[in-house]
């Protein structure tokens, strides 16, 4: 039972006519050679380069130092009523150690 699949798999190795590479096959031609070795690798390179540049090209303009701030203000993780929170806030101590050496 096991011998049949092994012999069937070894069939190409047991072939009588072995190709040792002495007889050259048909030539590709200039056009196909340029397509295979120049156009396709260049196309793959351009696609990968485009995919690398695409995220930064789609990004919206960012703030740059020295330019005016043109974006709306945003409140991150603050209270729901910022004006009320600011009015009820009390001043804290400013000297809390660090480089000033005021522990």
How would you sum up this structure, described in words?
The protein is an all-alpha fold and 103 residues long. The protein is elongated, with a radius of gyration of 36 Å. Helix content is 42%, strand content 0%. The relative contact order is 0.04.
What tags apply to this protein structure?
103 residues, 3 helices
Binned strand content:
under 5%
Q: How helical, in percent, are the residues?
A: 40-55%
User: What's the shape?
Assistant: elongated
Number of helical stretches of at least 4 residues: 3
The overall pLDDT, averaged over residues, is: 79
Radius of gyration (Å): 36 Å
H and E order: HHH
Provide the structure class: mainly alpha
- Write down how many β-strands occur, each being a DSSP E stretch of 2 or more residues: 0
Spans with pLDDT under 50 lasting ≥5 residues? none
How would a crystallographer describe the biggest sheet? none
Please report the distance between the alpha carbons of the first and last residues.
87 Å
Describe the secondary structure blueprint for this structure.
Blueprint (H helix, E strand, L loop, with lengths): L2 H7 L20 H29 L23 H7 L15
């Amino acid at each position: 039972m096991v011998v049949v699949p092994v012999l069937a798999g070894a069939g190409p190795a047991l072939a009588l006519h072995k190709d040792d590479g002495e007889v050259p096959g048909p030539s590709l031609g200039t056009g196909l050679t340029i397509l295979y070795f120049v156009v396709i690798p260049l196309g793959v390179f351009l696609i990968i380069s485009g995919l690398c540049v695409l995220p930064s090209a789609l990004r919206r303009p960012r703030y740059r130092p020295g330019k005016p701030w043109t974006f709306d203000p945003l409140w991150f993780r603050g209270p729901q009523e910022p004006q009320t929170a600011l009015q009820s806030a009390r001043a804290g101590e400013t000297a809390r150690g660090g480089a000033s050496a005021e522990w």
